[in-house]
Amino acid sequence: MWGVLIAFQNYQPFLGFWNSEWVGFEHFRNFFANPDFFRLLRNTLILAVYDLIFFFPAPIILALLLNEVRLAYFKRIVQTLVYVPHFVSMVIVASMTYVFLTTSGGIINELVASITGKSINFLADPSWFRPMIILQMMWKDSGWGTIIFLAALASVDMEQYEAAVVDGANRFQRLIYITIPAISSTIVILLILRLGSFLDNGFEQIFLMTNSLNRSVADVFDTYVYFVGITQGAFSYSTAIGLFKSVVGILLIYGSNRLAKRFGQEGIF
Question: Does the entry feature the keyword Transmembrane helix, yes or no (predicted)?
C-alpha cells in the first residue's frame, strides 16, 4: 500500500518515497482535465456495462443448463469442454481471433463473403471491437465461472424438487421458484465483488486486440496506464489513475452491499 504515496508526489526513483517532491492532488487534476479523460471513461464504462449485461449472467445460465442434464457422463464431458478455454493463454485467444476473422483467408470472413458477397473487417472496424471482446470473454471464462454456481446448486435440498413435482410444478417452474432463489445469495455476492473491479477491463486482452484503426474505442484506463506509466515513465500520474479506479471500486462495493441488504440479501459484510 505504500506505493499509493507516489500518486501525491512527483516521484523520482532515485530519490525514493520520502525524498520525492510532494505535489498533492496535482496528478488527479491533470488527469481529470486531460482531453482524453472522457473518451477513456466512456470506453471503460461501456465495456464494463457490457460485461455485466452479457458476460456476468453467462456462467449462471450455463450452470443452470448443466444442472438440468441427467446423463452424468454427458454432463462431465460438457463441463470439461467448457472448462478448457480458461487455461488457454489470452495471446492464443487473440491469435485464434485473428485467424478466424482476418480478411485474408479468415474462416468466418470466408463464410460471410460466400453468403453476402463481401467480407467484413472485424479486426479494424471500431463497431466490432466491443462485441469481439465480450465474445472472447464469454468463450474463455464462462465455463470456469460455472464452478461456483454448480457448487451452490449441489447444496439445494432435493426434497424441495420432489415436493414441487407432487404439487404439479413443471421443470421451468421448479427453476424459477426453487433453483434460482437457492443460488440468489451467491449471485449477489459475486455481483458485489465484480462491481469492485468495475473499471478493470483487463489489460492483456484489450492491448492484444487494439490497433491503430480501432483505438478510438479500444483505449481504456488499463491500457492508458501502461502507455503513460511504463512507456513514458510517468509513474506518479499512472498511480493516480490506478488509485482513482480503486476508490471508485470501493464506493461501488459499499453501495451495492448496502443495496443488497436493503433487498433482504446477506451481502459480503
Answer: yes
Q: Which residues, in sequence order, are bridge partners of residue 9?
A: 22
**250 has which bridge partners?**
none
Q: pLDDT tens digit string along 12-39? A: 888 887 888 999 999 999 999 998 999 9
Q: How far apart are CA 256 and CA 195, in angstroms?
A: 8
DSSP H or E segment with residue 22: strand 21-22
Q: Which of 3, 4, 6, 39 is nearest to 20 (CA)?
A: 6
Cell of 248: 471508485
219-226 long-range Cβ contacts below 8 angstroms, 24+ apart: 219/36, 219/39, 219/40, 219/43, 220/40, 220/43, 220/44, 220/47, 221/40, 221/41, 221/44, 221/245, 224/36, 224/40
pTM above 0.85, yes or no: yes
Q: What is the CB-side half-sphere exposure of residue 65 using CA atoms within 13 A?
A: 13
Q: What average pLDDT score do residues 222-247 get?
A: 90
